[in-house]
Amino acid sequence: MKRQDFTAGAAIKRILVAGGAGFLGSHLCEELVAQGHHVTCLDNLETGSLKNVEALTGSNRFTLLKQDVCDPLPDHLRVQEIYNLACAASPPHYQADPIHTMMTCVVGTNNLLGLAERCEARFLQASTSEVYGDPEQHPQTEAYWGHVNPTGPRACYDEGKRAAETLCFDYLRMGRADVRVVRIFNTYGPRMRPDDGRIISNLVCQALAGEPLTIYGTGEQTRSFCYASDLIRGLLQMMAAKDNPGAPVNFGNPGEFTINELAHLVLKITGSPSKISLHPLPVDDPQRRRPDIGRAHQLFGWKPEIALVEGLGPTIEWFARELRKGARATID
Ligand code: NAD
Ligand code: UDP
């Protein structure tokens, strides 16, 4: 089998972003186009939206390819880099069609890896902290193999992403593609959908609407929240690195908060009179999560710059604008 030369290519590149119309994907597309690259955004618009890439559609360096990543990719596609962000990331969305979620992770990633091999393109897989499941090690290092229920309702995503990592590292070991895997921890920011269903969008939209804040379980479970721009910077650094790390790399903000602490912070910043309402904890909901980001720091000097209290400001403004637009659309 032919071994590839894994050195970096030309300065201006042709880049495919699968899932590019989603929350994180659209920020990535925007940054890549701004850097002068030619970007093809492949997306089936399942959880993504045309609105997210509206500002880019006027650029001759941006092309939208509306298709499912599980379907055969067009023969004419020729790219030098591939970012695979295609997959619904919010539990209610990825659980709505769990078999399709698993297929997106496995068949979709395999399709894109095949394209990377044909084009000799560098490939970056957006994996997740969910590969650690409900972790027994805290904080989570990349060496931890995880604690995932393979048959529960979260498995379509957790096991799908784990299987996708397996494919990625087999392609890399076999010399078929220069594959890099990032494990993203809970990331938030503008362009999340008000109906996304994840904690930040739910709490902020509820607080802005004066509705009760829904807390699942006791609210003492923790998460560590990374602002979108910090994460995007990490993805770009990982893709640009001359040497392939040859192992997954965690990207996230180590600042760890209970869901109760987050709810009170949102109430304080929004000045909302909303009350808290307690609901049952979803099955297999991880109790604690915090990234060990030593590897990202050692490899790239990467660390997040935006604390939760700073990132919530622009995020709240985004949701306030979206809710106002929604209210106006209802009146019209
Ligand atoms: P998102 O749901 O906003 O984006 C996912 C995008 O993929 C959407 O545009 C969606 O339409 C598209 N998509 C889904 N299935 C597809 C398919 N079969 N074919 C083509 N397009 C498809 O979610 P996000 O938060 O932007 O997450 C982006 C990626 O990052 C996902 O792969 C997710 O697993 C990963 N990730 C995100 C977080 C986070 O906290 N945001 C954490 C860990 C991992
Ligand atoms: N959660 C909550 N209320 C909500 C949405 C989520 O209490 O309205 C909890 C959820 O049970 C989990 C945490 O917040 O413990 C983070 O949930 P999210 O869906 O954002 O991300 P994930 O569980 O995938 O990390």
UniProtKB/TrEMBL annotation:
What is the required cofactor set for this protein?
NAD(+)
Where is the protein found, in the record's own terms? Golgi apparatus membrane; Golgi apparatus, Golgi stack membrane
For the keyword Cell membrane, the answer is: no
Q: Which residues form a coiled coil?
A: none
Could you confirm whether the keyword Transmembrane helix appears in this record?
Answer: yes
Residues in NAD-dependent epimerase/dehydratase domain copies = 15-246
This protein is called what? NAD-dependent epimerase/dehydratase family protein
Origin species, per record, is Jiella pacifica
